[in-house]
Prior knowledge:
It is a single chain. Helix content is about 35%, strand content about 20%. By secondary structure, it is α+β, with helices and mostly antiparallel strands.
Amino acid sequence: xxxxxxxxxxxxxxxxxxxxxxxxxxxxxxxxxxxxxxxxxxxxxxxxxxxxxxxxxxxxxxxxxxxxxxxxxxxxxxxxxxxxxxxxxxxxxxxxxxxxxxxxxxxxxxxxxxxxxxxxxxxxxxxxxxxxx
Length: 133
């Protein structure tokens, strides 16, 4: 029995470290017994606002503000930052966890579509509900 205990004690810290590094957002997880999981800011918008996030017409201007539901922790911020930076035409990303808003800088030549931005937000595990220009 001592051999199994020694093996557990040897690998348990590594497993815990891996779980911490690879763990999901607390806002999207399943709560444990009696535990409430925070969900971040939830924006109230119209169905028309949400429908506009899926259009194929490129956005205009030098920046847009994305209202994102589910943005509640630093890992969410990192995820959305990295996915939006991969969208062609995006030059900068600033995430405000407290307000649930993401300001996206746009290049002068190529502009992304709302649908492209929405897909990136979904890839980050969140929901784009409105784009403000």
